Amino acid sequence: MFGYVSANWKELTKQQQQRYQAVYCGICRQIRARSGNIARLSLSYDIAFLALLLMSLYEPEETAGKSGCFLHPAKPRPWLDNQYIRYAADMNVALAYYDLLDDWHDDGKRTAKWMACAYEPYLEDIRRRYPEQCQTMAHSIAKLSSLERDGCDNPDLTAGAFGELMARLFVWEEDMWTPTLMQMGDALGRFIYLLDAALDYDKDKRKGKYNPFLAMGTGKDPARWQEYLVLTMGRATAAFEKLPLVQDKPLLDNILYSGVWVAYRANRKEEGRP
Predict the structure, then answer these.
(1) Whole-prediction pTM value?
(2) Can you tell me the mean pLDDT for 225-231?
(3) Are 222 and 161 in contact (CB under 8 A)?
(4) How far apart are CA 73 and CA 195, in angstroms?
(5) DSSP H or E run through 44
Protein backbone atom coordinates (compact mmCIF):
# COMPACT_ATOMS: atom_id res chain seq x y z
CA MET A 1 0.00 0.00 0.00
CA PHE A 2 1.00 3.64 0.05
CA GLY A 3 1.73 4.32 3.72
CA TYR A 4 -0.45 7.43 3.97
CA VAL A 5 -2.72 6.11 6.74
CA SER A 6 -0.24 6.72 9.50
CA ALA A 7 -0.15 8.74 12.70
CA ASN A 8 0.87 12.34 13.19
CA TRP A 9 3.74 11.24 15.40
CA LYS A 10 4.34 14.63 17.00
CA GLU A 11 0.82 14.75 18.38
CA LEU A 12 0.95 11.31 20.03
CA THR A 13 1.70 10.83 23.69
CA LYS A 14 4.73 8.71 24.53
CA GLN A 15 2.42 5.88 25.57
CA GLN A 16 0.54 6.07 22.26
CA GLN A 17 3.82 6.06 20.34
CA GLN A 18 4.92 2.92 22.16
CA ARG A 19 1.59 1.21 21.54
CA TYR A 20 1.63 2.13 17.86
CA GLN A 21 5.19 0.92 17.41
CA ALA A 22 4.45 -2.34 19.24
CA VAL A 23 1.60 -3.10 16.81
CA TYR A 24 3.82 -2.28 13.84
CA CYS A 25 6.66 -4.45 15.16
CA GLY A 26 4.19 -7.23 15.95
CA ILE A 27 3.00 -7.29 12.34
CA CYS A 28 6.59 -7.22 11.08
CA ARG A 29 7.45 -10.12 13.38
CA GLN A 30 4.48 -12.16 12.13
CA ILE A 31 5.34 -11.46 8.49
CA ARG A 32 8.79 -12.90 9.12
CA ALA A 33 7.37 -15.96 10.89
CA ARG A 34 4.67 -16.63 8.28
CA SER A 35 6.20 -15.38 5.02
CA GLY A 36 9.94 -14.92 5.47
CA ASN A 37 12.28 -11.98 5.89
CA ILE A 38 12.02 -10.56 2.37
CA ALA A 39 8.28 -9.99 2.75
CA ARG A 40 8.94 -7.64 5.66
CA LEU A 41 10.19 -5.05 3.16
CA SER A 42 6.59 -4.43 2.07
CA LEU A 43 5.23 -3.58 5.53
CA SER A 44 3.10 -0.42 5.56
CA TYR A 45 1.60 1.71 8.32
CA ASP A 46 -1.71 1.43 6.44
CA ILE A 47 -1.81 -2.19 7.59
CA ALA A 48 -0.91 -1.20 11.15
CA PHE A 49 -3.99 1.03 11.16
CA LEU A 50 -6.15 -1.90 10.02
CA ALA A 51 -4.83 -4.05 12.86
CA LEU A 52 -5.41 -1.29 15.42
CA LEU A 53 -8.96 -0.72 14.19
CA LEU A 54 -9.92 -4.40 14.42
CA MET A 55 -8.21 -4.72 17.82
CA SER A 56 -10.17 -1.73 19.10
CA LEU A 57 -13.45 -3.10 17.77
CA TYR A 58 -13.08 -6.70 19.01
CA GLU A 59 -10.63 -6.26 21.94
CA PRO A 60 -8.87 -9.65 21.72
CA GLU A 61 -6.45 -11.00 24.29
CA GLU A 62 -2.93 -9.84 23.49
CA THR A 63 0.48 -11.41 23.86
CA ALA A 64 3.32 -8.96 24.44
CA GLY A 65 7.07 -9.31 24.37
CA LYS A 66 10.33 -7.63 23.48
CA SER A 67 12.99 -8.85 21.08
CA GLY A 68 15.60 -7.69 18.60
CA CYS A 69 15.63 -8.29 14.86
CA PHE A 70 18.06 -7.97 11.98
CA LEU A 71 16.97 -4.35 11.49
CA HIS A 72 17.37 -3.49 15.19
CA PRO A 73 19.75 -6.10 16.63
CA ALA A 74 21.23 -3.99 19.41
CA LYS A 75 18.05 -2.71 21.05
CA PRO A 76 15.13 -5.12 21.57
CA ARG A 77 11.77 -3.60 20.70
CA PRO A 78 8.34 -4.27 22.24
CA TRP A 79 5.80 -6.15 20.12
CA LEU A 80 2.20 -7.30 20.39
CA ASP A 81 0.50 -10.36 18.96
CA ASN A 82 -3.10 -11.48 18.45
CA GLN A 83 -5.27 -12.82 15.61
CA TYR A 84 -5.77 -9.39 14.08
CA ILE A 85 -2.06 -8.67 13.94
CA ARG A 86 -1.57 -12.03 12.21
CA TYR A 87 -4.45 -11.21 9.85
CA ALA A 88 -2.85 -7.86 9.03
CA ALA A 89 0.47 -9.61 8.36
CA ASP A 90 -1.16 -11.99 5.88
CA MET A 91 -3.08 -9.20 4.14
CA ASN A 92 0.08 -7.13 3.82
CA VAL A 93 1.93 -9.97 2.10
CA ALA A 94 -1.00 -10.87 -0.19
CA LEU A 95 -1.54 -7.26 -1.21
CA ALA A 96 2.16 -6.76 -1.89
CA TYR A 97 2.22 -9.94 -4.01
CA TYR A 98 -0.69 -8.93 -6.24
CA ASP A 99 0.66 -5.39 -6.55
CA LEU A 100 4.07 -6.73 -7.61
CA LEU A 101 2.46 -8.97 -10.21
CA ASP A 102 0.61 -5.94 -11.57
CA ASP A 103 3.87 -3.96 -11.80
CA TRP A 104 5.47 -6.85 -13.68
CA HIS A 105 2.60 -7.29 -16.13
CA ASP A 106 2.06 -3.56 -16.74
CA ASP A 107 5.58 -2.14 -16.62
CA GLY A 108 7.82 -5.18 -17.07
CA LYS A 109 9.73 -4.45 -13.86
CA ARG A 110 12.17 -7.32 -13.31
CA THR A 111 12.57 -6.49 -9.63
CA ALA A 112 8.79 -6.78 -9.22
CA LYS A 113 8.81 -10.22 -10.83
CA TRP A 114 11.67 -11.35 -8.60
CA MET A 115 9.95 -10.11 -5.46
CA ALA A 116 6.61 -11.69 -6.46
CA CYS A 117 8.36 -15.03 -6.97
CA ALA A 118 9.85 -14.70 -3.47
CA TYR A 119 6.37 -14.14 -2.00
CA GLU A 120 4.56 -16.77 -4.06
CA PRO A 121 5.40 -19.87 -1.92
CA TYR A 122 3.52 -18.31 1.00
CA LEU A 123 0.42 -17.30 -0.95
CA GLU A 124 -1.17 -20.76 -0.96
CA ASP A 125 -1.59 -20.74 2.82
CA ILE A 126 -2.86 -17.14 2.83
CA ARG A 127 -5.39 -17.91 0.09
CA ARG A 128 -6.53 -20.95 2.04
CA ARG A 129 -7.03 -18.92 5.21
CA TYR A 130 -8.64 -15.91 3.50
CA PRO A 131 -9.99 -16.91 0.06
CA GLU A 132 -12.49 -14.07 -0.29
CA GLN A 133 -9.99 -11.37 0.58
CA CYS A 134 -7.43 -12.75 -1.87
CA GLN A 135 -9.98 -13.14 -4.64
CA THR A 136 -11.11 -9.55 -4.14
CA MET A 137 -7.51 -8.32 -4.23
CA ALA A 138 -6.79 -10.10 -7.50
CA HIS A 139 -10.05 -8.92 -9.08
CA SER A 140 -9.78 -5.30 -7.92
CA ILE A 141 -6.13 -4.88 -8.93
CA ALA A 142 -6.88 -6.39 -12.36
CA LYS A 143 -9.86 -4.04 -12.72
CA LEU A 144 -7.79 -1.03 -11.69
CA SER A 145 -4.98 -2.00 -14.04
CA SER A 146 -7.43 -2.30 -16.95
CA LEU A 147 -8.97 1.10 -16.23
CA GLU A 148 -5.54 2.72 -16.03
CA ARG A 149 -4.36 1.11 -19.28
CA ASP A 150 -7.48 2.45 -20.99
CA GLY A 151 -6.70 5.96 -19.71
CA CYS A 152 -9.92 6.22 -17.66
CA ASP A 153 -10.81 9.90 -17.24
CA ASN A 154 -13.22 9.35 -14.34
CA PRO A 155 -11.34 9.34 -10.99
CA ASP A 156 -14.37 7.85 -9.26
CA LEU A 157 -14.03 4.63 -11.26
CA THR A 158 -10.34 4.07 -10.61
CA ALA A 159 -10.60 5.12 -6.97
CA GLY A 160 -13.64 2.87 -6.65
CA ALA A 161 -11.66 -0.17 -7.76
CA PHE A 162 -9.16 0.39 -4.95
CA GLY A 163 -12.04 1.13 -2.58
CA GLU A 164 -13.54 -2.30 -3.32
CA LEU A 165 -10.25 -3.91 -2.38
CA MET A 166 -9.94 -2.02 0.90
CA ALA A 167 -13.58 -2.65 1.81
CA ARG A 168 -12.99 -6.41 1.78
CA LEU A 169 -9.73 -6.15 3.72
CA PHE A 170 -11.57 -4.43 6.58
CA VAL A 171 -13.77 -7.50 7.13
CA TRP A 172 -12.00 -10.21 9.11
CA GLU A 173 -15.23 -12.18 9.59
CA GLU A 174 -18.86 -11.55 8.73
CA ASP A 175 -20.84 -10.06 11.63
CA MET A 176 -23.07 -7.11 12.50
CA TRP A 177 -20.23 -4.64 11.86
CA THR A 178 -19.50 -5.85 8.32
CA PRO A 179 -21.52 -3.16 6.46
CA THR A 180 -19.97 -0.32 8.46
CA LEU A 181 -16.45 -1.70 8.11
CA MET A 182 -16.92 -2.10 4.37
CA GLN A 183 -18.22 1.47 4.04
CA MET A 184 -15.21 2.74 5.93
CA GLY A 185 -12.75 0.60 3.98
CA ASP A 186 -14.23 1.65 0.65
CA ALA A 187 -14.04 5.36 1.46
CA LEU A 188 -10.54 5.07 2.90
CA GLY A 189 -9.36 3.14 -0.16
CA ARG A 190 -10.70 5.86 -2.44
CA PHE A 191 -8.96 8.50 -0.32
CA ILE A 192 -5.62 6.65 -0.46
CA TYR A 193 -5.79 6.27 -4.24
CA LEU A 194 -6.75 9.89 -4.87
CA LEU A 195 -4.19 11.25 -2.40
CA ASP A 196 -1.46 9.27 -4.16
CA ALA A 197 -2.64 10.68 -7.49
CA ALA A 198 -2.56 14.25 -6.17
CA LEU A 199 0.92 13.87 -4.70
CA ASP A 200 2.31 12.16 -7.82
CA TYR A 201 0.69 14.48 -10.37
CA ASP A 202 3.86 16.34 -11.40
CA LYS A 203 6.00 13.19 -11.43
CA ASP A 204 3.44 11.22 -13.44
CA LYS A 205 3.09 14.06 -15.93
CA ARG A 206 6.85 14.27 -16.35
CA LYS A 207 7.19 10.52 -16.88
CA GLY A 208 4.07 10.15 -19.03
CA LYS A 209 2.43 7.75 -16.57
CA TYR A 210 -1.26 7.35 -15.92
CA ASN A 211 -2.78 9.60 -13.30
CA PRO A 212 -6.57 10.00 -12.92
CA PHE A 213 -6.26 13.77 -12.50
CA LEU A 214 -4.10 14.01 -15.62
CA ALA A 215 -6.60 11.87 -17.53
CA MET A 216 -9.38 14.32 -16.64
CA GLY A 217 -7.66 16.84 -18.88
CA THR A 218 -8.46 19.83 -16.65
CA GLY A 219 -4.87 20.68 -15.77
CA LYS A 220 -3.43 21.04 -12.30
CA ASP A 221 -6.30 21.84 -9.95
CA PRO A 222 -5.38 21.31 -6.27
CA ALA A 223 -8.60 22.93 -5.03
CA ARG A 224 -10.71 20.40 -6.92
CA TRP A 225 -8.51 17.53 -5.79
CA GLN A 226 -8.94 18.63 -2.19
CA GLU A 227 -12.71 18.48 -2.63
CA TYR A 228 -12.39 14.83 -3.64
CA LEU A 229 -10.13 14.09 -0.67
CA VAL A 230 -12.29 15.86 1.90
CA LEU A 231 -15.43 14.12 0.62
CA THR A 232 -13.95 10.61 0.70
CA MET A 233 -12.32 11.09 4.10
CA GLY A 234 -15.60 12.49 5.41
CA ARG A 235 -17.33 9.27 4.37
CA ALA A 236 -14.59 7.21 6.02
CA THR A 237 -14.80 9.06 9.34
CA ALA A 238 -18.62 8.99 9.31
CA ALA A 239 -18.50 5.18 9.18
CA PHE A 240 -15.66 5.13 11.71
CA GLU A 241 -17.70 7.04 14.26
CA LYS A 242 -20.49 4.44 14.07
CA LEU A 243 -18.18 1.77 15.49
CA PRO A 244 -18.21 1.23 19.30
CA LEU A 245 -14.50 1.90 19.77
CA VAL A 246 -12.90 2.57 23.15
CA GLN A 247 -9.50 0.88 23.18
CA ASP A 248 -6.95 2.98 21.25
CA LYS A 249 -9.68 5.40 20.09
CA PRO A 250 -7.48 8.51 20.63
CA LEU A 251 -4.70 6.88 18.61
CA LEU A 252 -7.10 5.99 15.81
CA ASP A 253 -8.51 9.54 15.91
CA ASN A 254 -4.99 10.92 15.51
CA ILE A 255 -4.47 8.82 12.37
CA LEU A 256 -7.80 9.56 10.67
CA TYR A 257 -8.22 13.21 11.60
CA SER A 258 -4.60 14.34 11.44
CA GLY A 259 -2.07 11.74 10.30
CA VAL A 260 -3.63 11.05 6.89
CA TRP A 261 -3.19 14.73 5.97
CA VAL A 262 0.51 15.03 6.89
CA ALA A 263 1.89 14.09 3.46
CA TYR A 264 -0.67 16.27 1.67
CA ARG A 265 0.06 19.32 3.81
CA ALA A 266 3.80 18.81 3.40
CA ASN A 267 3.34 18.73 -0.38
CA ARG A 268 1.22 21.90 -0.33
CA LYS A 269 3.87 23.64 1.78
CA GLU A 270 6.59 22.67 -0.70
CA GLU A 271 4.54 24.27 -3.46
CA GLY A 272 4.04 27.43 -1.40
CA ARG A 273 0.32 26.85 -0.96
CA PRO A 274 -1.60 27.40 2.33
Answers:
(1) 0.93
(2) 94
(3) no
(4) 35
(5) none
